[in-house]
Each structure stands twice: as C-alpha cells, then as structure tokens.
Specification:
The structure is a single chain. Helix 4 (95-103) links the parallel strand 4 (80-84) and strand 5. The protein has helices at 23-27, 34-41, 56-71, 95-103, 119-132, 156-159, 208-212, 222-243, 261-271, 282-285, 292-302; strands at 6-15, 20-22, 45-47, 80-84, 109-113, 139-146, 164-174, 180-187, 195-196, 219-220, 251-256, 311-318, 322-329. The protein starts with 5 loop residues before the first strand and ends with a strand. The strands form four sheets. The chain has a five-stranded mixed β-sheet, with helices on both faces. A four-stranded mixed β-sheet has the order 8-13-12-11, sandwiched between helices. Strands 2-3 form a two-stranded antiparallel sheet. It folds into two domains: 6-178, Peroxisomal Thiolase, Chain A, domain 1, CATH 3.40.47; 181-329, Thiolase/Chalcone synthase (Peroxisomal Thiolase, Chain A, domain 1, 3-Layer(aba) Sandwich). The radius of gyration is 19 Å and the shape is globular. With 332 residues, it is of the alpha/beta class. It is built from eleven helices and 13 strands. The relative contact order is 0.19.
Length: 332
C-alpha cells in the first residue's frame, strides 16, 4: 500500500517595498523616539508601499513570480492560490483572483482567507488538505498586507508597529515525512474588540462619521493583546511539540509572528527556548501582519538557519482572537 500523500513546502519567497519608514521619520509625525520604539517593540524601520496605484495584490504577485522562477515551473501548473490578507485591494473580488490574473495561472482557482495575523499559517494548513486529498499538486499560499493603507499616523500606539510586505510558499505532494506534520488552531471572539478595524464592514460602512472618527484604521489595546499573544502563542507551540513526541531540543527554529519583540521573547521564555532558536526580524520589517511568518521563513532559508530534515514551529497570534501553531519537517 503506497504511503499517504503529505504536503511539503518546496519553495519560499518574499517581497517588500523599497521605501523605508524609520523611527526617525516617525519622530516627525508623533510624540515618540527611536530609543523608546526599539526598547518597547524592537522595531527600527518598516517598509511602505507608497504608490497609491499599487496595493496588496501587487505585493503578492511579486512573491508568486519569484516562486515560479525558483521552482522552474509555469503559472499554468498552479492548481490553487490562497491569499491570507486583511488588506485586500477591494472588498471583492478576492485578492487571489487578481494574483491569478497577474501571473496568468489559467488553470488555478483560489480564494482569500481572513484571520488577521494568524492568516498565513491557517492558509498553509488549508492548502495542505488539498494536497493530502490528492486533488491538487501545486498550491501557492501567500500572506500579504499593505498595512500602511489602514494606519492612523497620528496614533503613536499603532503607527510605530506596522509595515507592508508579502511572503509565500509553494506546497507540493510528498510520500515521506518532510512535510506539514501537525497543527493546532484556536479562536476566541470575545477578544475581538482589543485588536480590530471597526469601520468599512457591513456594521459600520463608510460614511463621513466613520472617516472622521478614523474607524477605518487599526485599533489596538496593546497591553491586553501582549498578554494574550505571549501566553497563547507559547502554550499552543508547546502543546504541538509535546503532542508529536518531541522536546524543545528537537526544534531547530521557532518562526513566530513578528508582532513585538517583547511578545516574542516572552513566548520564548515560557517555552524555555534560547534566543538562537528563534527567528526575529521585526527590527527590519515591523509587523506586516499576514506576511510576517513567510518573510521570516524566507530569511531562515536564505541564512541557512534551517535545512532539510529540521523541525520548525510556525507560531502565530493576533486579532480575532486567532492563534495557533504548525509543526513542519523541512523538505529542502
């Protein structure tokens, strides 16, 4: 009897805009300074997509094109495109449809997945199900956000955090164990008010009032979110390691959502992981929401911090609340 199909990550790519928004730039906009930002959240700069005619689909398309080039495949070979985003170009059509058209993937279907900062890791496991079912052979999973379009640059609590970018992976079938091995996910809607964008939906559609009150911008209760994220991201990652008969010593790298350096380090301490086992790049890119984990994955590959056979944990937590982790045995 043949081994069951599993989903392997066979390529990873990222794209960030060229323009940088530094802490010194933010000092000119709000009452803050470089020392405070670095010490409290660990960010030195973030990338911003300044062109008003370009949005999330542009970022995601750049990632898709890189993946196709890396694997030496044509767009016509792609079966499914999943885009995790909270900043779609439009309410509809889905950003995945725009990416499909941009790259000429005439045989692919696709859809968007909205789970805030947890979206990319959720989408990877969704894509894996299609691979495991044997119905799809090449699935593009991309996380991307143009957060600058929804940030209030008079609110120092949020404008220091977010940047723009995208990252993604290609999933393909394998019969060995170098694959997406397990996942644990949760949501708790009782925390939704603590990290949200209240305007623009069917509850508060666009109006003079919603614009005047900046309801279309990200709102966050930082202290509450930090406590939630650091605790739950660590606990769910610890559970997935234990459930698979592993220990922290077996994990080569924790690839966490890049929300705040203090959140990441608090989670690491709770998991008893040394800093050398954690990928942190929030200093260069800020919080790119759905893009943080795939951008971090790309950096881990580029810097040779992960190689074939290594166990990694992708961990995430964000608005919803939504959080979880995925255990991966790296395939290349």
């Amino acid at each position: 009897m043949p081994n069951p199909l599993r989903a392997a990550i066979t390529s990873v790519a990222h794209y960030v805009p060229e323009d940088r928004l530094t802490n010194d730039d933010l000092e000119k906009l709000v009452d803050t300074n470089d020392e405070w930002i670095v010490s409290h959240v660990g960010i030195k700069e973030r990338r911003i997509l300044k062109d008003p005619n370009l949005a999330t689909a542009h970022l995601c398309t750049k990632v898709a094109e890189q993946i196709l080039e890396q694997r030496g495949i044509s767009a016509s070979e792609i079966d499914l495109i999943l885009v995790a985003t909270i900043t779609p170009d439009m309410v509809f059509p889905a950003t995945a449809c725009l990416v499909q058209n941009n790259i000429g993937a005439e045989n692919a279907w696709g859809f968007d997945l909205s789970a805030a900062c947890a979206g990319f890791v959720y989408a990877v496991t969704v894509g894996a199900q299609f691979i495991q079912a044997g119905t799809h052979k090449k699935v593009l999973v991309i996380g991307g956000d143009k957060m600058s379009a929804f940030i209030d640059y008079t609110d120092r609590n949020t404008c220091i955090l977010f940047g723009d970018g995208a990252g993604g992976v290609l999933l393909e079938p394998t019969e060995d164990d170098h694959c997406i091995q397990d996942f644990i996910f949760h949501v708790d809607g009782s925390g939704g008010e603590h990290l949200c964008q209240p305007g623009g939906g069917s509850l508060h559609p666009a109006s003079h009032e919603t614009v005047d009150q900046r309801m279309h911008c990200v709102k966050q209760n930082g202290r509450v979110v930090m406590k939630f994220a650091s605790t739950n991201m660590a606990d769910v990652s610890g559970r997935i390691i234990e459930r698979n008969g592993l220990t922290a010593d077996d994990i080569k790298l924790l690839v966490p959502h890049q929300a705040n350096r203090r959140i990441i380090m608090a989670a690491a301490r709770r998991m008893k992981l040394p800093e050398e086992k954690i990928l942190i790049n929030i200093d260069k890119f800020g919080n790119t929401t759905d893009a943080t984990v795939p951008i971090a994955l790309w950096e881990a590959v580029e810097t040779k911090r992960i190689e074939r056979g290594d166990y990694i944990v992708m961990a995430t937590a964000g608005g919803g609340y939504a959080w979880g982790s995925a255990l991966v045995k790296w395939a290349y």
